């Protein structure tokens, strides 16, 4: 007697309703082996507007940092700026207390790839490059973005790294198409970074966002086309490539008592830019400008 195995379907039409053309398209791709989103990853118009409002606050936070960041300030002062802007809008910082993270923003200087913890004795110096990564919660909705800042004048090598990292973000966004795949994003980013012999960090990724801090899918910044999850209109996710001047490998600082700070393996500089994106019928819309 033959044994028939049934694979659990991820996508289901709304209960009690006939499948729409949208449903049929997703189910047809799933039947061909595609990893498809679950219905809860498709945001409603009301949810999208909530995420958009959170994005506006998040942008104001980073704009305020941009207007005030300078040589001689410490990263704890950046944390205070972020908290003040958040409080003004009745929003809260998602990082604070998240799995033990002790501050409201990530401040990652030079070879610190990500998750740098603000400290009074981390004083910004001429030539430093720093990533400021902030996630806002407003009325239960999340928006996540980060920017690079150059303190005063830096080396041509660091300037190029910061520029190319931003290009990688926008090239990845351009590769994100409705009914394409997450792997298309990573493939485009990796190709661009390799032109400069840079390493693309593999141990950390972008992610779905909006109703939670981290949702499906994982958005890896390297890989092959037509792999990963299907990208469907209504999905909201971050793209946030971490580009290292040297090796793509990283390690966690053993001296960090919280176990958060990620450093490039060869301790060469690293740069990262991030936006929260909405997938539409024609491509992505940035929700954190």
Throw out a few tags for this protein.
single chain, 289 residues, alpha+beta, four-stranded antiparallel sheet, disordered N terminus
Structure, explained:
The protein has 289 residues and is an alpha+beta fold. The chain contains five helices and 15 strands. The chain has helices at residues 21-31, 45-68, 75-88, 156-175, 182-194; strands at 92-93, 106-109, 112-114, 129-138, 141-150, 199-200, 206-208, 215-219, 236-239, 242-244, 250-252, 262-264, 270-272, 275-279, 284-286. The strands form five sheets. Strands 1, 2, 4 and 5 form a four-stranded antiparallel beta sheet that branches. Strands 3-12-11 form a three-stranded antiparallel beta sheet, with no helix packed on it. The protein has a three-stranded antiparallel beta sheet with strand order 6-10-13, with helices on one face. Helix 2 (45-68) packs across helix 3 (75-88). The longest helix is centred in the first third of the chain and has 24 residues, at 45-68.
Our count of helices gives 5
The whole-angstrom Rg is 20 Å
Please estimate the helix content: 25-40%
Beta-strand residue fraction: 15-25%
Provide the residue-averaged pLDDT.
96
Which spans of ≥5 residues are poorly predicted at pLDDT below 50?
1-6
The structure class reads alpha+beta
What is the string of helix and strand elements? HHHEEEEEHHEEEEEEEEEE
Overall shape: it is globular
The main β sheet shows up as: 4 strands, antiparallel
* Strand tally: 15
Could you tell me how far the N terminus lies from the C terminus, measured between alpha carbons in angstroms?
A: 60 Å
């Amino acid at each position: 007697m033959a044994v028939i195995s049934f694979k659990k379907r991820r996508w289901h039409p709304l209960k009690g309703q006939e499948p729409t053309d949208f449903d049929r398209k997703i189910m047809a791709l799933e039947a061909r082996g595609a990893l498809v989103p679950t219905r809860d990853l498709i945001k409603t118009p009301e949810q999208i507007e909530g995420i958009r409002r959170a994005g506006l606050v998040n942008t104001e936070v980073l704009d305020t940092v941009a207007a005030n960041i300078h040589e001689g300030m410490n990263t704890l002062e950046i944390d205070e700026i972020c908290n003040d802007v958040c409080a003004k809008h009745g929003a809260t910082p998602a990082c604070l207390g998240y799995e033990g993270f002790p501050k409201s923003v990530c401040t990652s200087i030079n070879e610190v790839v990500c998750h740098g913890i603000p400290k009074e004795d981390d004083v910004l110096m001429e030539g430093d490059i720093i990533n400021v990564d902030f996630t806002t919660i407003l009325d239960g909705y999340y928006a996540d973005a980060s920017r690079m800042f150059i303190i005063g004048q830096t080396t041509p090598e660091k300037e190029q790294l910061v520029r190319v990292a931003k290009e990688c973000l926008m090239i990845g966004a351009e590769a994100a198409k409705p009914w394409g795949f997450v792997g298309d994003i990573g493939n485009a980013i990796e190709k661009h970074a390799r032109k400069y012999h840079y390493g693309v960090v593999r141990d950390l990724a972008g992610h779905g966002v909006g109703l939670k801090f981290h949702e499906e899918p994982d958005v890896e910044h390297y890989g092959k086309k037509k792999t990963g999850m299907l990208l469907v209109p209504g999905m909201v996710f971050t793209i946030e490539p971490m580009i290292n001047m040297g090796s793509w490998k990283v390690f966690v600082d053993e001296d960090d008592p919280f176990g958060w700070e990620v450093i490039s393996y060869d301790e060469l500089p690293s740069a990262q830019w991030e936006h929260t994106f909405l997938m539409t019928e024609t491509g992505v819309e940035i929700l954190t400008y």
